[in-house]
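S.,

Sequence below, as promised.
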Amino acid sequence: MGMLKRMKDMRDMVEAAPGMVAQAQQLGAQAQQMAAAQQAAYQAQAGQALGAQPGGFAEGADFDPIAGVSIEQFASVSKGVAAFGYDPTKLPEIAASKGISAADWQTAHQGWNERIKRNRAVAQRFNQLYRAI
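The prediction came back faster than expected:
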């Protein structure tokens, strides 16, 4: 008799599975929506705390080009080294292919790295640009 009871319980569980899967998918979708909303709220707060313009990024001296190299150009050259197995010796070559002299690249490379370490807003902007490339 115990075996029949276990078979009935097994059948009931199999019949309930599609509903449980659907419910789990709904809960997962709700969790993703909540996470996205929290992330947007966090970014808005961070932008306000860092003095960013609505829909934009913080501005100031730390976002000015270094040796004529903008943060966008710095991110582009930095991302370009991936094609060379992240060999740092290729950075001046990549910079040159984008019209940046070796001397300007060296100055910009040091300067942007210092700003990224010192200013969280600069680091966030660099990360966003790097990921977008």
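The first helix runs from residue 2 to 49.

Coffee later?
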